[in-house]
Design a protein that fits this description.
The chain is built from 8 helices and 15 strands. It is α+β, with helices and mostly antiparallel strands. The protein folds into 2 domains: about 120 residues, Aminotransferase class 4, branched-chain amino acid transferase, N-terminal domain (D-amino Acid Aminotransferase, Chain A, domain 1), CATH 3.30.470.10; about 160 residues, D-amino Acid Aminotransferase, subunit A, domain 2 (D-amino Acid Aminotransferase, Chain A, domain 2, Alpha-Beta Barrel), CATH 3.20.10. The structure holds pyridoxal-5'-phosphate.
Length: about 280
């Protein structure tokens, strides 16, 4: 049975979902997206993802493609139609179909597309060994707080990581790490977690937000400040967070071991409590 996807109010087999060549997502990358994790057939942090979607849409003066209730039903129906137990729902909104012209078209309904991806997130074997990352310059635009579908710089970074046998690339700007191509970035030094403060320079991660709350519950101090590549190499531990990886230990940077070269105690604890909280929230 082929995957059932959602396109503009319809659920249909993926082969039958077609969009116009004039969709502004296709022509200009004029769209925004969200990725929400699914565990045991239930969403993790659904509301914060939709709050971030609302903000992304607002920043771009883009209309909602449907009501919030309808969007929730789209998410839930996709999980049901595809029998998804663990993985994620990807959804994107674009400014719709219009003659090619840079300025925003008037009276054009937004387009909505969404699909499921099955994935082993909790028992991901990579979490036991940790993953490698590389450093690359951050060549992205200056509104990284908007979850835009314009991801070419991230694709280039991820490709370089893949060629280097790494899982992720951490981007560097003005001597400081901004974030991973599809994740928030952290180091741990002397028991304190260090991560960059929110600004236009990074995406406000939903997993980051959950981690902040959990860290407070478990008396783990989080220092929000920029950190350098030298600090990464001298750190005790490092990790990334995202809806797709949850909390994933990073054990190498540019071929050099970080700390012991194995997932450290602070990272392991945070991953454990994050997963426990996500499962218990249902
Ligand atoms: C650039 C970037 N930063 C951070 C994240 C992590 O965000 P979240 O935890 O909401 O998945 C992502 C996720 O895709 C991302 O693309």
């Amino acid at each position: 049975m082929s995957r059932i996807v959602h396109l503009n109010g319809q659920f249909l087999p993926e082969e039958e979902a077609r969009v116009s060549i004039f969709d502004r997502g296709f022509v200009f990358a004029d769209g925004v997206y969200e990725v929400t994790a699914v565990i045991n057939g239930k969403f993790v942090d659904y509301d914060p993802h939709m709050q971030r979607l609302e903000r992304s849409l607002k920043e771009l003066d883009m209309a909602w493609p449907c009501s919030k209730e309808e969007l929730r039903a789209v998410h839930e129906d996709l999980v049901k139609h595809n029998g998804l137990e663990e993985g994620r729902v990807y959804m994107q909104v674009t400014r719709g179909v219009a003659e090619r012209d840079f300025a925003y078209p008037a009276n054009t309904p937004a387009s909505l597309m969404a699909f499921t991806q099955a994935a082993v997130t909790i028992a991901n074997p990579k979490a036991l060994t940790g993953v490698a990352t590389i450093s690359i310059p951050d060549i992205r635009w200056k509104r990284r707080d908007i979850k835009s579908i314009a991801l070419l710089a991230q694709c280039m970074g991820k490709q370089r990581a893949a060629e280097a046998g790494a899982y992720e690339a951490w981007m560097v700007e003005d001597g400081h790490i901004t974030e991973g191509t599809s994740s928030s970035a952290y180091i741990v030094k002397d028991g304190r977690v260090i991560t960059r403060p929110l600004s236009n320079a990074i995406l406000p991660g939903v997993t980051r937000r959950a981690l902040m709350r959990l860290a407070a519950d478990y008396q783990i101090i989080i220092e929000e400040r920029g950190f350098t590549l030298a600090e990464v190499l001298g750190a005790d531990e490092a990790f990334i967070t995202s809806a797709s990886s949850f909390i994933m230990p990073v054990v190498r940077m540019d071929g050099q071991e970080i700390g012991t070269g194995k997932p450290g105690p602070v990272t392991k604890k945070l991953r454990e409590v994050y997963i426990a909280a996500a499962v218990a929230a249902h």
